[in-house]
Amino acid sequence: MKFAAADIYRSIGDIREKSPLVHNITNYVVMNNTANALLAIGASPVMIHAEEEVAEMAKMASALVMNIGTISEPWVRGMFAAFAAATKKGIPVIIDPVGAGATAWRTQTVRDLIRAGRPTIIRGNASEILALTDDRSKTKGVDSIAASDEALSSARRISEMYSCVVCVSGPMDYVVDRGDVVKISNGHPMMTKVTGLGCTASALCGAFAAVETNAHAAAAKAMAVMGIAGEVAAQKAFGPGSLQMHFLDVLYNLTENDIRERLKYEE
Amino acid sequence: MKFAAADIYRSIGDIREKSPLVHNITNYVVMNNTANALLAIGASPVMIHAEEEVAEMAKMASALVMNIGTISEPWVRGMFAAFAAATKKGIPVIIDPVGAGATAWRTQTVRDLIRAGRPTIIRGNASEILALTDDRSKTKGVDSIAASDEALSSARRISEMYSCVVCVSGPMDYVVDRGDVVKISNGHPMMTKVTGLGCTASALCGAFAAVETNAHAAAAKAMAVMGIAGEVAAQKAFGPGSLQMHFLDVLYNLTENDIRERLKYEE
Amino acid sequence: MKFAAADIYRSIGDIREKSPLVHNITNYVVMNNTANALLAIGASPVMIHAEEEVAEMAKMASALVMNIGTISEPWVRGMFAAFAAATKKGIPVIIDPVGAGATAWRTQTVRDLIRAGRPTIIRGNASEILALTDDRSKTKGVDSIAASDEALSSARRISEMYSCVVCVSGPMDYVVDRGDVVKISNGHPMMTKVTGLGCTASALCGAFAAVETNAHAAAAKAMAVMGIAGEVAAQKAFGPGSLQMHFLDVLYNLTENDIRERLKYEE
Known about the structure:
3 copies of one chain form a homotrimer. Chain A is α/β, with parallel strands linked by helices and 267 residues long.
């Protein structure tokens, strides 16, 4: 897959114009930032999770993003119900397997979830993606201890198995659609010192997938925008507190020129 | 109802001096910002929701703010218990029907909640207020797709029915106490790109109602302060990330002069 | 106990180098800030709470921090399970009795929790610490209405009873290990206008206790770093919004010199 700065910027324009409703069932830690990032890029976030209403929400939503960061049984039930409704309607579904591999229950839960419908994009760090297929993989809490390239064969396997795009994020992001791998090396090391930017990346995958039928392109564009916005924000920041603030401002103001000057991708 | 900048500023002084305890049962997305906004204006926030303790908390609180953003059954039970205790004690109760109209369960839940006690102020966007009386009203997630003036007759009806103040917020805020309507047109478009400023407005209604017996004036003052603080913050901001930060700083430092120079209201 | 700026800075170096996994079961209001503060100081936060997995997480974690701010029954069950596993493994456990004294259920719950294992550090404001032993103590929501020195004898008693360190925070922080009391008077009044900085203090106790076997020193160092970072941040801030942002930047960039110039402690 090929894409240029102009393609990315056109998709941002689509998001800003259509303001797609992105339904998030995500963790408590990042809800505020995720909602703000979606608003900043031009989408319309909604964050409900109750089993009683998630299926009905799918009827209105243009994408569903599920993130297992702080799951408990009632939230898992909400995710299964939302996933079924989203799969039935045919909207893109993004799954973020936060902390997969950290505990047996978490790993099993997200494996079961992935099999319960048709995921469009799965995005995680290397440890998390490895844990989806490999029982020996270990995550240190929610931070990756594996390098992205170690997870590449897992990513390919999952992509084949579920006919979905798998994104392994890290200093180099791998966006995998079966044999087709796009590598994006935008971003800044200080981004790892802000909680939940991985979760934001998954939410942006939802926003791009809502306006772009090619899921591989949607995921790659989202990862490129994350990395580029992080770089621009890091230039203005004195630490992770100001990085988080500037990141939202930069997402809101992102220009085609910012993207053209910085985009670093290879097939 | 008439009010001047001096009245608003006097109420802010009362909040800063008395630091009223405002009990919030609100959604996960905005809890941090809501607590920070209440602290910045001078109130003392508490955010507990468990059925086991909410009634006892009402004994200490000067206002109760309930927001249905991310409800589930246990939280709804907590809201009913808190509402009963607050109504019994006679403290002001503010209800924010976030996303009313988006799903049948949500709409029914908030309609039942409103009928379960004596709400003092109901604050929502136009879609949400319309959904309280009109089954055909549709909300797009949590963002309004109706104009504020469309909701005005609904607001009047609800105000009559429950003897409460109804506030429809938007570019023009309508603060309705039966036949008496105050219009406030402060605010800035970028405020819609920060998640949860509507929820903050409801929380500030709680802070003002805690120190001001006239609920109509309390709601109008809260809406004016929201809009004015948002305008001042937007002047300093480069995007929604910095707007959110400056908003808290501005609330904390708001002067009578800021209010006098900017207040835009009409009866 | 004696300690100097160099000791504190050495511990920060250990945190930055080892990046200890700090498992937090904390409240919804502060989760984002707590995770960000732990990342900024160099630790690795994880925030899971489900009964199904907390015990397994203890095997990986270097410290457990439990905070009762927004508890409900399922979270309390998660805390008991996590505490048992952490006590069995022997990692430090920090308990933050947010709002103890505000309701009977809350007070009883945290008293039961403390007795269920071996807490290493208990950190709260004066009202909260008093409420752990005194039924007549009253908290105003989550803000202290007692002075720190009033809670000193309670703190000593709890420290003796549970062989743990008790930290009473306020304008003067008392860090009590039975007869040994360290007083730290760093900090800035504006810190009370940012929600959850007390919760952040408890989380930092977890980070320091993860790399420092002397719990008394760990708690004292955490309180000193909180106060010093708050002072430096307040110098740059225009209000509580920017204070919160600068606080994270300052934690991330804290130097030995910052600590040496500002540390105010006495035995």
